[in-house]
Every structure is written in C-alpha cells, then in structure tokens.
Write a structure and sequence with these properties.
Strand content: 5-15%
Number of helices: 11
Order of helices and strands: HEHEEHHEHEHHEEEEHEHHH
Shape: globular
Structural class: alpha+beta
Helix content: 40-55%
Number of strands: 10
Radius of gyration: 22 Å
Strand order of the largest sheet: 5-10-6-9-8-7
C-alpha cells in the first residue's frame, strides 16, 4: 500500500487506543479546568474566553476564543482581518486526535483530579487522591503535550508508548471500574515517579503560565499554573544536583516522591515569595534564549546583506530590539516573526540611507 495512504489512515486513528477512528473534535491537550486558570480573560471561566500567548525560541504568536469581546480584541490587536479571525486556533485544542470513547476516559480522571485544586495548605499536604490516580493524571498531560507536537517538548517514542499503555490499560469510562492497584504491577509503570510542588493562591496576585522546561529530562519538568511538576521515568532526580533551578533546588529534594504503589498524593508547599523569585528567574532564562535567537537571526541577515564580518554591529541590534519592544505596539502584534522582520527593515533603512 502507498506510504502516503498508510500515513493518512494512521493519522486518523485514535492515539490512545490505536484502534478506533479519532472522531472527537475540540480535544484539550491540557484539561480545561487548568488552562482556564492560566489564559482566560479575567473573571471569565467558560470555554471560548481564552486569550493566550505562545513564546517560542524563534517566534511569538497569540490566540483568542470565540467568546472574547470585540472590545478586548481591539485592545490587544487593533483591527483584525477576516483572514486572521479565520486562521485563529488554539494550539492546545486539537481535532481528531482521540476517539469519543477515549476522550471520555481521559475526562474521568480529569473530573476526579479537578476536585483536588480547592484543597490547599500553607504546609506540605495530601491532595486527597491516591498517588496512582495523580500519576495517571499528570502522565496524561505529559503524554498529550508530547504527542500533540505543540507542547514544547517531545518524549522519546518508548516513553510515549509506556505512558499510552498505562493510560489505555487502566482508564475506563466509569471511574468505579478503574483498578488503580494494577498500576504498581505494570512493567510500563516501573520506575515512574513524580514530585509535585504548589504555591497556593500565587495566581491571585501574579500571572501564571504553562512551560515545559527544555533543559531537563532527569526528570522532565512542567510548570503549570500554581504547580511545578517533576516527572521521572526512572525515579531519577539527579539533574538538580548541579542545577539550583532558579532557587528551589533544596525544595525539590525535600519534596516527597509520589509512586504508583504509594498512598495519597503528597504536595510540597512553596511560599508565594519563593514562587515569585522562581518564576522571575525562569522568565529571565526564557528571555535570554529568545534574545540569543533573535541576535543569531540578525547576524545571519547581516551576512546575507553583505555586511562586514559575521555579526551585525551591536548598536544596530540594540536599535532593532528597542523597536521590537516598543510600548506603542498592540501586544497581540508585538514580537512576532512578522514584527521582527518589519522592525529590522525599519531600522536598517536608516543605515542604508546613510
């Protein structure tokens, strides 16, 4: 059979069961009850009120839900064309990745875990669910982010398959039919553990975000809303022996390790001021990567235009960065690939005239 035809057929098969047609539309790669706390308009909790920004190494783009008010869109973007509205889509809401039955199975553990968010403490505490359920819930998010291609990080194929097998064999459309005890006996779950840190009520005073930290695989690290998740496939947290990780290295090692055979999920409490310093350090790290990427592109442009040497003069780079970060621009238009090109042209034209 033609390889293109085979690929087309496989792309239409549910990624969880590997059997049924992926007929479900609007699947949330990250559960809505978490996403809405990160990206919804202030005071809005319903679907369709998303207004988010994605910052990549080489680009920045934004998206908005169908219920966002015209006044808010005007504030963020200015005039939007029909083409822009038509092309708008949420990177973590995807069609035809799961079948309806598997979507319901994922929804079961999401509904159970969502009940833990209202339980919080100013000390280390239990979330009130079994660690096996917590492991399945967080594994489902890690796995979906990986297979979607839009999560900022991809697991290895064997790791993806281990998580898929765990989820497929245990999840049911009725929670009462789920046997969590078999998780500790499964070969695919062997060695998988996680640590969970939370700063309760941090989101009341500070913005939050979703970020898959790119420089750590031992363990993988996901920052999401008020949580920092450390997810290991080999009960290995050695990465942080040498990395202070923006000031919370000691807290990472002090946090309890949640295992498939554990009792209740344990969450390590992180004070708001520590979380704020952590996020500020992480944002600075992301900003530096972004700036390095922009400078690399400007150097390549400089060479392509026949400039002297292999790098653009710092004074020109500084002017372009000032133009990119100008406060006069609508936030939804700023720092995109198109904005970088337009800002570069605007600044370079002055030097060409000279």
């Amino acid at each position: 059979m033609n390889q293109a035809i085979v690929k087309n057929i496989m792309d239409r098969i549910c990624k969880l069961c590997n059997n049924h047609i992926a007929d479900k539309t609007g699947s949330h790669i990250v559960p809505h009850f978490l996403l809405k706390r990160i990206e919804n308009e202030e005071g809005k909790t319903g679907r369709g009120n998303e207004l988010g920004f994605v910052i990549k190494t080489g680009d920045t783009f934004s998206y908005f839900g169908r219920e966002v008010s015209p006044e808010k869109l005007e504030e963020v973007y200015g005039d939007l064309t029909e083409e822009e509205i038509e092309a708008n889509s949420h990177p973590l809401i995807i069609d035809h990745i799961f079948c309806s039955q598997c979507e319901r199975k994922l929804g079961v553990i999401e509904e159970k875990y969502s009940q833990t968010l209202n339980l919080k403490s100013n000390n280390n505490y239990s979330s009130g669910v079994q660690s096996a359920l917590g492991l399945l819930f967080w594994a489902s998010i890690i796995w979906r982010l990986s297979i979607s291609g839009n999560g900022g990080m991809r697991l290895s194929d064997p790791q993806n398959e281990r998580l898929r097998e765990m989820l497929f064999k245990i999840l049911k459309t009725d929670f009462k039919e789920m046997d969590l005890t078999i998780l500790k006996k499964m070969k695919s779950a062997k060695g998988i553990t996680y640590k969970l840190i939370r700063s309760p009520d941090y989101s009341k005073s500070s913005p939050t975000f979703l970020h898959f930290y790119p420089d750590s695989k031992y363990p993988y690290t996901l920052i999401i809303w008020e949580y920092i998740l450390f997810f290991s496939f080999s009960d290995n947290y050695t990465h942080f022996l040498k990395d202070k990780f923006f000031g919370i290295q000691n807290q990472i090692f002090a946090a309890s390790t949640n295992k498939p055979a554990g009792d209740e999920e344990l969450i390590f409490y992180l004070p708001i001021d520590v979380m704020k310093r952590f996020n500020n350090g992480l944002i600075e790290f992301i900003k530096n990567i972004r700036v390095d990427s922009i400078f690399s592109k400007l150097d390549a442009l400089h060479v392509k235009l026949g400039g002297n040497g292999t790098s653009m003069p710092d004074i020109i780079k500084k002017e372009i960065m000032q133009e990119i970060t100008s406060d006069e621009k609508k936030i939804g238009r700023a720092q995109t690939a198109e904005d970088l090109a337009a800002s570069s042209i605007k600044v370079l034209q002055k030097y060409i005239r000279k």
